[in-house]
Fold each of these.
Amino acid sequence: MFGAGAMTNSIGEIRDADFLFVIGSNTSEAHPIIAMEMKRAVRDGATMVVADPRKIWMTSIANRHLQIAPGSDVWLLNAMAHVIIEEGLTDQAFIDAHTEDFDQVIEAVKAYTPEAAEEVTGVSAEDIRWTARKYATTEKAGIYYTLGITEHTHGTDNVYALANLVLMTGHLGKPSSGMNPLRGQNNVQGANDSGATPIFYPGYQRVDDPVAQAKFEEAWGCELSPDPGMNLNVMMKAVGKSIKGLFVMGEDIVLSEPNVSRLEEAMNDLEFVVLQDAFVNETFRYANVVFPASVFAEKEGVFTNSERRVQRVRKAVDPPGQAREDWQILIQLANAAGANWTYASSAEVYDELASLAPQYAGISHARLDREAATAAARGAKTGLQWPCRTDTDEGAVYLHQGGVMRGKGLFQPVAYRPPVEPTDEQYGLVLSTGRTLYHYNCATQTRRESGSHIKQPEAFVEIHPADARTRGISDQDQVRVFTRRGEIQVRAIVSRQVRRGSIWIPLHFGEARANLLTTDEGDPITQTASYKVCAADVAKLDSATADNVFPGCHYAVDGPGGHHG
């Protein structure tokens, strides 16, 4: 829709924003550094609206909390668009100069009145109108979202609906505004930029584009297929079927992937599994070969963060034992398989990327090293933000200045689609999963650290008092949470933090894997699974069963602080 898949603006601009619309992001726990900038903005007078099914810390400082029903985002966002159009709050000059297909969105949102949206979302019509007006009429207004928007069977529609709001109000190509996906890991942006998606070569050049295909065939000296590969969710469903071997780098798939009991059965049908990781994790049970990898302080290279900032990572210590840097392992493996790769350093690998991806062309390890020295003297941030196309280009603090990078911003009309798994008499609650402040993703590292473990030693389920009461559940009871795919045993936290009819579980705990419960039904475009909406229920355990629930650290093999298990 815009021509670039990244934060349009920079983290430092958040503190100068006048309106922050935070949706599907538990920012203070999942992105605490970015949350600090949001807190500064609110302290200095910015208006904040948080749309989230849970009462999170950010709602305590927000002007409004839109406690939306899980999975009803399109209704909320289309209703906001309805108000903006109906009340003449669009930026018509921007629409005329920089967009196309706005008429299709006008038609699509006519039926999405705030009153009708209230029935579906649970958010009052008055709150919807107030939020839409405030967003449309504030000059420095930015949208910030993450997995709470994308991890749905309609996640792409959610992103389309957000982008429609940005385009119709002209909040693009200017400071402290735009549309800002907050990346879930420290180098997700860099991985995508480098081509770690099935439809793109490095630099977001499509594999089915004949020009791009010819360019990379010449650079790499080989024939390349124009057919997109499988994305992650499709791959996981093909494991043990069309996929007979698996190479897993830096991910604990039997903890992180949805409907994991089905995946585990399929893993037993694989002929060969290779793992490349720095720590032992749950997936190691299936490995035929393990390549010990390095952690960030043991390697050279770059990370590209959420704001498109390319930053140097410099080796502080050598990897222990037989561990190697990831690029070294891959080169040795490729050459053992008959290649003739001659890269002598991570800088040479990066130089190839920069020569093929125009937005990186002006960035090199050497330039980043020079910039770091001068930045330290100036007290400025290190690194450069893409697009940075020449050696003298200073990079882009925000994207789309002077016009949309795509040429014309493309409006995308969307219609609400209900969740694929509605609640019923047997499964009367909606389950969502997510992260907490004290642990990180699969907790392969954080559950080895004593401080994090003390702060949060075990899994839990948050349940509303009304739902707990009807099930005979008290706070701190041991309970079983079950779905159509499996069940786990955890401790109940009875709390009004979740809305009635919903429950919430953190994803970090191997002994109570939330993804034994989640569905692997995917978004039709991205195939991203629905981690945020699954039909579930909760039942109290009897005392004999509850005594057998083990709350301890699942990764105690090395003990707290253990390294390179």
Note: The two ends are 44 Å apart (CA to CA).
Amino acid sequence: MKLDKPNKLKIGLIVAVAILLARLFVIQIVDEKYKIDASNNSMVYSMIYPPRGIIHDRNGKILVGNKMAYDLLVTPKEVEEFDTLALGEALDVPVDFIREKMQEYYRDRRKIGYQSVVMIKQMTPERYMKFAEIAYKFPGFRGQARSIREYPYNAGGNLLGYVSEVDAAFLKSHEGYSAGDYAGKTGIEATCEKYLKGEKGYNIYLRNSHNKIEGRYRDGEMDKASVPGKDINTTIDAELQHYGQMLMQNKVGSLVAIEPSTGEILTLVSSPGIDVDMLADIGSHYNEILANPYKPMFNRAVQSAYPPGSVFKLVNGLIGLQEGVFTPDTEYPCHMGYQFGRNRLGCHEHRSPLDFEESIMMSCNAYYCYVLRGILENGKYGSVAEALDSWKRYVGSFGFGRKLGSDFPSELGGFIPDSKYYDKVYGEGRWKATNVISLSIGQGEIGCTPLHLANLCATIANRGYYYIPHLIKDSKEVSIDAKYKKPQYTLVDTSYFPEVIEGMFRAVNSGYGSGGTATIAAVKGLDICGKTGTAQNPRGDDNSVFICFAPKDNPKIAVAAYVENGSFGARWAAPLASLLVEKYLNGEIGGNRKYLEQMMLEGDLMDKVKTD
């Protein structure tokens, strides 16, 4: 039977009314939430802030814990006439401070309404208890407990990051937060904010017509308990991180250590950094930190795009072997440098000619000029430009020229030039291999972070692959992304890596007077393999660079050291990196190297670094 139009309208109206009545029934009778919302003026919500999750190192030691603090809240509409002098003494604040605050609340009384506002943040328990003993004399004033961060180890202020009160910009871009909340702003605190923050709770109190608190609403039935944040297990070794920071005192640069078999970051030091005592009260020190000319908030380990210097020869050598432009037995001459036309790329004095392993051991510049020219002038490519783009793909497979994808915030990708870049500089088809010859020794336009260099070292230690470096470990509370467990293979066949490793081994362990550039890094029994680098620096002395891993077989640690204005690689970077390796593998520094440790701890290069 078909319904006519009036009947359809009647049925539609009846259905709509039924839905509305059902909704009103739910709101008024069933759903207690709406009752609470409708009577907000008679209710007071006391927030319960959860403790943030604890941050542990790889061995279970606490890197970041919690301690109790109190905010002093004021509900202006509940405040009665009070003794400002007595309150000032109890709170240990000037009387003028209290008067100014109360005048401010009076001016904003319409905006504040029945809300509570924070007068004093993060009071110590001792300071708060002094007030609590006489709190009954000051209606409208009350304390609110919350946990704040504490740091048992001075291990990585830049690495751990800080927590601070959210601002308007943060609230606009992040859901679930409100004014007065705190959140991780940098470092691991920011990376793991969603796990660490927990969930706020509240207690609901009833207010009578005289604005007095009568008691708990429905005996606390509608209260909500807070949920503590989840604990985080990091890959960091707290003792090693602390030791690395001590070594880098009064120096500008980075120390990064990775476990090659997992990609787990053992140490990530940026110097100068932020002391953890400042992190605990970042608000008081923020302007001081910003004014520091050495920029301690700038994490050089993941944000500085440095030239890699001679350590990059290892990459060019591997590409050349893969491309077949030379073999490990190929010898090239060096007469204090490489001559091309009227130009010359210099080198230090050593015997000549050299084969591939010896070129690594002695860090010969000329050898790699020959190698790069072989790569770029390879006849299988139609042009030098095409060959350079192929070279860039190889380089990219080692992780350079892009972000590695670590779980550390603010990581930069560095820069690797391609043919389009040089077309803009010289004009299309108007440049050749000798125009870009500085790429052969890790200079020119190449930019990378110390994390890239540590990853390169881990890649060589693994004989051709790496795991994306990361800071967070799997745990019951937190599962890391599957990408961190997947090996990333280079475009160079694994069969070519043993030759490079042997050259790195000889660079460290060849014995004094035999040509090795990194013999200062040798530690008996550890079989350290390393490569020195001296990166040109237009702002002063050269930068000192060194990468190494140990032991030679079944490596446990790969390290990159980068010291600004540190001169040649063996001067500062090699000792620093080798001490870190020795500390990690042996647990202590041997007696025959204590002198070297003392030199590194006392070394001060700050006056060499230009800060303008």
Note: The two ends are 89 Å apart (CA to CA).
Amino acid sequence: MHRHLFSLILLAASLGTAAAQGFDPAKVDWEKLSKIPMRDGFIRQFNERCAACHGEDLRGAPLGTPLVGADLRHGDSVTEIAASIATGFPESGMPEWSATLNERQIWNMALYVAEQRQGTTILDKRANIALTIPAGVITGERHAFRIEEVATGLDPMPFSIAPLPDGRILLSERMRGLRIVGADGSVSAPVRGTPPVYDDSREFLGQVQGLGWMLEVALHPRYEDNGWIYIHHTDRCSDCNALSRRGDRPVSMNRLIRGRIRDGEWVDEQVIWQADLAAYTDTSDLAAGGRIAFDDDGHVYIGIGMKGPLDFMGIQDRSLPYGKIHRMHDDGRLPDDNPFRDDAAAVRTTWTLGHRSVQGLEFNPATGELWNTEMGPRGGDELNRLVPGGNYGWPVFTSGVNYDGRPVNVADKLGIELRREDAVFPVVDMTPSPAISSFVFYTGTEFPGWRGNIIAGTLRATDLLRWEIVNNRVVHTETLLTDLARFRDIELGPHGELYILLENAAGSRIVRLVPAGGPED
């Protein structure tokens, strides 16, 4: 059916547990490990035990009901599916699998069924399929729209776009740097003088891993007056801390800079935020986060993800920058009202902590609040409203599980203590995981029925979502586009236009949604 890297993911999860008990990842031959033949554990498990009744495609067989494309009588959440598998329904011929399967195997199977119902798998389903942009009018609940192509043939690993007032668009590509997309769709050579990026990444566990990437590019809110452009990138160095010297390899860490572009060259560079060199790691920049947001009071925020060792180390440690949202004045000064400003043991720019993988970071101008999206591991994707000093729980509280279906239970091993009443829980929890990505609060005029809504993309589910928010709760969800592409970034143009960056291994693209008449137009 599919080809996954489940066995390697399972092994990596077991290594993570060992790391919490003193395991040294530096001693692992990762190159050798990455060449272990792929085996699809959870699909094989399903086919061996369930396909005879439910079909290998989960669409039913003579002996059993379909598990996709139909309602499930006993509930379709992961918990409900797991309960059905465990207890069985002897009266209809389904055995009680808890007699022969352990808890991990049952969770594996339940997650697999839930993911297939959602149309997702652990790995992205459209990684190597050329994009086909739908032609004609797409009819939504509140508006009909069309998709216009703005630029094609972009690098397979873009990260962000920033529309300029003159109709051009800044484009950041992780291993190529910063380029400018013309109003006619032409793409410039990389802008000279920006921080170096490195293309020596390699594929491991089915995804590209590397150090020294360019992440988000964003315009200052008063760009037309001051020309400032902000770049969130991962600064790479060698022989610069104990880890890099011990392993004789480079390390990297998130950094925020600003500068201007003059005659195709990056000039006037200033460092706005940089971590202590001791915090630089050899953890892939795939987990670095990398988003930027501005509020109405002259502050800039950046999100940093899993740049500590493994995906849970250091995130609850206030003295380390990983797994945090950081807040500065837009010129880099430390605000007087930062929640940890007077904590001598903390990184004083910390605004919130307990984040796993920050994929979106946006300011809601209607309420004056900061929100983020972040990925869990297998399940546990989140939409969060960020409150100053809030602890968002990772890795203590999550509805996601490890990739092998086991609970995320490293808190005791790491000596982390966090009470439920001291944690902030998500506005929306998504299990199974669609791999939630970038989003915007729509404030444009082209789609008045969407004003104040969140428009959010997904990577694994390859869907575009619209969330209606009332009193900090999502009261309705509409899927605007289904099964299209990896939605890497979503941005508003200077006049409220809705631009989308579609990531694809066969050639990424920038598109724009335009009105086509509809129920409220």
Note: The chain has a mean pLDDT of 86.
Amino acid sequence: MGEGKTEAALAVAEIFAARSGAGGCFVALPSMATSNGMFPRMLEWLERVPDVRLGQGPRSVLLAHSKAALNEDYSALMRAGRREIRGVETDGSGNEWRPRVDRAMGSAELIAHQWLRGRKKGMLASFVVGTVDQLLFMGLKSRHLALRHLALSGKVVVIDEAHAYDAYMNSYLDRVLSWLGAYRVPAVVLSATLPTRRRRELAQAYAGAGADGEGLADVENASGYPLLTAVEFDRPATVEVVAASGRETEVHVERLNDDLTTLGDMLERELADGGCALVVRNTVGRVMETSAYLRDRFGHDSVSVTHARFIDLDRAEKDADLLKRFGPPEKSTGRPVGRHIVVASQVAEQSLDIDFDLLVSDLCPIDLLLQRMGRLHRHQRGEGQSDRPPRLRSARCFVTGADWTRAPVDPVRGSVLIYRRHALLRSAAVLEPYLSGTATSGHVVRLPQDISPLVQDAYGSAPVGPPQWQEAMEQARQAHELHQAQQDNRARDFQINAAGKPGRAVIGWVDAGIGDADDTRRGRAQVRDSRECLEVLVVQRRSDGTLATLPWLDKGRGGLELPTDTPPEPKLARIVAGCGLRLPFHISLPGVIDQAIDELEQNYVAAWQSKESHWLAGELILVLDENCRSRLAGYDLRYTPTDGLEVVRAE
């Protein structure tokens, strides 16, 4: 929530490494996008850290996810590693002159070692940023599991955005923490919006069966923000409220009816003198619908769109553009002149340091809504926010995506499918006093003071909300608990056993396992309770029948002809690999997914399946026509660099 959690975690990692003798650090994040954003921050940190704090000699680094090689920072390190490093170990000191290298190798040098690029060995690198899946694989019955345990046992482990995981993933996370605790691996868990019960579960998982019950009760009962919880072996757990940064934001919250005309009227009124608004929708479909309406009303140039249904290269460009225009004042190139509206999905709610004058959000779980509010007035713009338009110098959030006339409120169907009704109703219930103005502070949510009370009330067990809501909320609670129990049971099918007593053999710990665990669709599906989705590489077929890269790609990458009788040269193949796109859930439904795969396999290019074409071999190819359209499994597809992939059922 802008309080500097990541910087604090890296500082703690230095201290833990010095005390424990750890030789590296692993930072786990929810997604590839957040991992890519964290990687350059780790590199900057490593450049500043003295060698005595985190080991001597060249520091091997790894970006751990399936598309790491497409990251520019990481690929530059890989090229440097191929040029300069010949072995895993070198004799002599880290500053020794080596005749084969045309310069002295500095002890703080960062390299992506070629030997560590294999999917089984990669985690052995000293400093790793990656998706949380890489950590959760430590709890999965799979081959080469001991190698993954070895890789993590010598590091400090940092787990960011710990609130972002469901019961299925939390089951794996708890199992992994139990093993990290048994190995005495220092671990740092970060979240701005973690419920107290979940905080206790994490502490208990790490401390093991011998954890002090009274100390853990103190962990669950503690409140305040920011809050530090420390768990050590043979000592009671401790909790301490620490001084905040001093930055406070008062957010005025209001209901907003869920129709586009009402939204447009409000934005026209509030942005009359200019300003930047963020509209966050819970589904890509609602993003598309909303942006189309707002562009018709305010003009195409006044509305931007971002969501997860862009090819990788376009998504990276979108994130960079957001940071350039709406990032910290000292880093951005200037906000848009006049009014501008960004319509986004959940990709805008975490790990992007962006700042807006006004927020509109679909109703969502309270912790995520608070994360979205953290994008309001995130940075100081003039004294007393005087550089913002007069109407927008006070932070305001409009909550929509529900029928507010019902008792209880009725969230839109797409939100219920994603978050389930229980979490949405609990969120609406704790917001009700602020939305109606009956809270002590009226309509104002104070950040950070109100973060902990709102989260704990929403995720607690005590009744919340008006009396007439309680029957429906109880039904939603029962359905939620049943769903959580089912998730937990499914998660345990392929989990390794909990850490045993010292000296106990681990023979048989991968029996009946899944085989290899890697960062593929199948591998990720083992540690995430999500429907398998198809990922494709997107190219275009010209009128003459030739294939080419998408025409709008920048840096000379657009409109390049792709050979089909020979493997493309590596640079060209890498561009195509950067055009990966995850298809929406409609196309992954039972019955539809098989038809989609059959149709995609008709785009098979035999020359691309050779070992010389590792970027493209085995990948599904989606071919767009000259108008960037295609048809797949009964759906019409259209892709644009401004809106991403649009999917409608074919007539």
Note: The longest helix spans residues 470-491.
